[in-house]
Amino acid sequence: MNDILARLRELRSGDLPTHGGRTLAYVYDSGLSEVDEIAAAAHALASSANGLDPTAFPSLLRMENDLVARAAGLLGGTPETVGTVTSGGTESCLLAVLAARDARPDLAAPSIVLPETAHAAFHKAAHLFGVRKIVVPVDPDTFHADPAAMTAAIDDSTVLVVASAPSYAHGVVDPITEIAAAASARGVRMHVDACIGGWVLPYFAKLGADLPPFGFSVPGVTSISVDLHKYAYCAKGVSVLLHASAELRRTHYFASAAWPGYTMLNPTLQSTRSGGPLAAAWAVVHHLGEDGYLTLASRARAAVERIRVGVASIPGLRVLGDPVSTLIAFTGSDGFDLFTVADEMKGRGWYVQPQFAHGTSPLNLHLTVTAANHGSEPEFLADLAASVEAARAEGPVRVDPDVVAALDPETLTSEQFGGLLAAAGLTGGDGLPERMAPINALLAAAPEPLRERLLVEFLGALYTPSGP
Question: Which parts pass through the membrane (predicted)?
């Protein structure tokens, strides 16, 4: 057993660090070691329990109802508010779309209205469930959803309107009140994607932040998603999808007696669900409590303010929009390459997330700031400034336009893709290059359909076993 665990530790040594606040994407770190310890212990106690049948494992039912009640309390829920614990934000968003679609079986071609900054999970939902997307441009300067444009996009086929609190890309909260009023006037459901902000923005408000309303206190809001594995600092993957009433929730449930086995009954897209993540989340939420979350929110708020001010003070960098949460996106001038800045930061022990240009949003670097970043802001900003200067000295990354022009996502062959991988220094498996700027520059130059196809092919190459 010790040999196996030693091997696992060796494998994990090549991963990005999940603690210490140096990975500013994908992970949410409270900075408190006991949180990991209690989560691991609780996970072990319940990992063999199966959420498929709550009558067989009533402990899971009790814990799920407790977490739903806590989330509803944070987000202005009423005694009628109900919810479901899911595997993550994407599943919560999928279920919100599914519930809205199946509530309108009379519509042959149902649609959802969403701002272009809405999370890609809603595009996935539209793809999986055969729902048309009506994507609405946002304000080009603030990146807020445009209430007038959203209102104009609602028609008789609309089953759901979506807004964000905050949007992932820029960290801004959409004008939920105006959009929800428009949806309500047309008798349409309104979903607020608060996967990132739902557990931290209410505490920001308690700390004095001036935030626009986005919860169930806003008339017309019918569902909200909030991830506990983000700013509730729980182990992955746990999210909660809240509905204003049981009637609204019912249509994402699934039941089938059309076979000789047990009658299948599922509140989520999954059937079998380990009790481990649920129990770990329940334990962490009860351990931290109201005072613990207020303290962690205070640390995260202080860190994000210091980093935002510091980023804006570095020559050539500009913060996008007016972020009010824990997310910051910043772009750069033409004098240096942001992908090179990301590589330089990684060389200094920090991971920052590149975001490609889309619509009016330019190429930028994205930061997810957590409580663990509190105290390390000066070091981060000094390394960021040094990385910008290094990128200036290195100059822009050049991409041969003929390489991109020669590729058609509809006819891309495995030979073409293999040649492109080899030219870029990507071989799949463990063959990732130390510096990603040339790869990212190539992807940025590719039209979005080609970029999607290239990344799908690359993902397939990564998930190809090389042998035992």
Answer: none
